[in-house]
Amino acid sequence: MTMNKYQKFKKMDNKSYSDVTRFLKETTHLTAREWVISRMCADFKNLSNHSEMTWIGENLPELVPFMDEQYSRQEVSNARASFKKKVQRSGTTFFYAYYAGLITQEEMLQIIHQMVKDIKKLMDTEGSEVPEEHATEVQMLVAEVLRNINESLDEDYY
């Protein structure tokens, strides 16, 4: 059976793994491996809404133009965990800088403006668009996160 390349990475057809990682490092802390695995884990789920990690790992070279080898289920799981850890650390860095007074509100708004440009660049690379209802959901979620941070900072965690 011949499989078509995964359409999310079509714009990277002539790129190497290193090229893709360099591209990602311009705007994120992610490697090509973490990006690909996380994208595929989000897109390839079974009826129980669990990622098909074994299938993803076995089919990487057939689905993604710049991935040359198969991954084990454990390697897929590790890449996904690494992605999540980097997301958490990036969020902590971003919010800490503002809450600790290391950046001003104006600087934070400038950073957010650049983040939006970078997100659009990444989404365009994947050939994706953010549905309007998802954009609204994200805005509400961020507002809730900020409320939770404010409440948590007032609590004693020691």
General description of the model:
By secondary structure, the protein is mainly α. The protein has a domain at 10-102. The chain has helices at residues 17-25, 32-43, 53-63, 73-99, 105-126, 132-154. The mean pLDDT is 88. Helix 3 crosses helix 4 (73-99). It starts with 16 loop residues before the first helix and ends with a helix. InterPro entries: DUF5806.
Overall, the morphology is globular
Radius of gyration: 18 Å
Helical stretch tally: 6
Task: Give me the secondary-structure category.
Answer: mainly alpha
Q: Estimate percent helicity.
A: 55-70%
Say how many strands there are: 0
**What's the order of the H and E elements?**
HHHHHH
End-to-end CA span: 58 Å
Q: What would the average pLDDT be, to the nearest integer? A: 88
Strand content: under 5%
The oligomeric state of the chains shown is single chain
Question: Are there runs of 5+ residues with pLDDT below 50, and where?
Answer: none
In this structure, how is the largest beta sheet organized? none
How do you describe this structure in short?
Pfam families: DUF5806 (PF19122). The protein is 66% helix and 0% strand.
Task: For the structure shown, list the relevant keywords.
mainly alpha; single chain; 6 helices; 158 residues
